[in-house]
Specification:
The chain is mainly alpha-helical and 123 residues long. The protein is built from 5 helices and 2 strands. The protein starts with a strand and ends with a helix.
Length: 123
C-alpha cells in the first residue's frame, strides 16, 4: 500500500517489486532520514517519465522506434543524472542569491532606521 496525503491506495506489483529491489540493494537510503525527501521527490519525478520519454523519442524525425537499443540506457541515465544535478545546483544558487538580496535589503533598512533615529539626536 502507498500512503500519500492521508489516502491509502494499492500500488502495482511492478512498483512493489521496484521498491523492494531498492530497499534491498540500497538499504542505507531508506534508513537515513536525510534522504526521505529526496526519495519522495524522485518518486514524483519518475511518475509518468517512461511515457514522456517514449513520446519524446517518437517526436524525433525519422525515428520509428526500431532504432532504440538497450545499450542506450547507460548514457541516457547519465544524461538524466547530469541534468538533475545541473538543475538542483541552479535552484540552490538562486536560493543563495535571494538570501543575499534579502540580507542586503535588511541591512539597508536597518541603516535607514538607524539614521532616522540618530539624526534628531545629533542635530
Amino acid at each position: 500500500l502507498e500512503i500519500r496525503h492521508r489516502s491509502v491506495r494499492p500500488i502495482s506489483a511492478k512498483h512493489a517489486q521496484a521498491s523492494r529491489f531498492l530497499q534491498q540493494s540500497h538499504p542505507a537510503l531508506f534508513l537515513d532520514e536525510r534522504f526521505q525527501t529526496s526519495l519522495v521527490m524522485l518518486a514524483e519525478l519518475f511518475k509518468g517519465l517512461p511515457a514522456m520519454l517514449v513520446a519524446a523519442l517518437d517526436e524525433i524525425e525519422g525515428m520509428d522506434g526500431t532504432e532504440v537499443r538497450k545499450e542506450w540506457a547507460g548514457p541516457l541515465r547519465q544524461a538524466v543524472v547530469e541534468k538533475l544535478v545541473k538543475e538542483v545546483s541552479a535552484v540552490m544558487a538562486r536560493r543563495v542569491q535571494l538570501a543575499q538580496i534579502s540580507t542586503l535589503s535588511l541591512l539597508l533598512w536597518m541603516s535607514t532606521m538607524a539614521t532616522d533615529l540618530l539624526d534628531p539626536l545629533l542635530a
